[in-house]
Design brief:
By secondary structure, this protein is of the alpha+beta class. The protein contains four helices and seven strands; from the N terminus they run E-H-E-H-E-E-H-E-E-E-H. It has one domain: Glutaredoxin, CATH 3.40.30. Strand 5 and strand 6 form a beta hairpin.
Length: about 150
């Protein structure tokens, strides 16, 4: 019986003639770096990490530009996992003068999503895959009935 679980990381960006903007290109490198770190950390725990790359057409991008440079981990947005905020700022290159997605966390705003944020979100998503069955079922020796102080 194979009890391995899967963490699915999906990254989506605008592609036009096989090209994307520098912001999404830099995020792609960060996603790859994060995937390597997550695979190393999670494989011993029985969790496989899979990357799915999604493509937005120019038409889809124009309908909702904030769908580009989006990362989901097991179906939830990266921002949800890390208590971040979705923002926007003007992009360049093939995106034209459109605003593209940014991620805000505390006082920082990221146009390129750093691997550290992706790893953090991935570890949080993986912890849900492990669930309560991975916690030891033994009662703690200093539980409420046996708390701190000897008599």
């Amino acid at each position: 019986m194979d009890s391995r679980k899967t963490l699915i990381v999906k990254w989506q960006r605008l592609l036009f003639d096989g090209q994307t903007c520098p912001r999404c290109g830099a995020t792609e490198a960060e996603v790859e770096k994060a995937l390597d770190a997550l695979k190393q950390a999670l494989s011993p725990l029985g969790i496989d990490v899979i990357l799915e790359k999604g493509e937005l057409s120019v038409e889809e991008f124009k309908i909702d530009t904030l769908q580009s440079n989006t990362i989901w981990l097991n179906g939830r947005l990266l921002e949800e996992w890390i208590d971040g905020k979705t923002g926007q700022s003007q992009c360049c290159d093939i995106c034209g003068l459109h605003d593209c997605r940014t991620v805000g966390l505390e006082e920082e705003v990221y146009e390129t999503i750093p691997s550290e944020l992706i790893v953090k979100a991935g570890l949080l998503a993986a912890s849900q895959l492990l669930g309560p069955q991975s916690a030891k079922s033994e009662p703690e020796k200093n539980g409420p009935e046996n708390h701190c102080c000897p008599k």
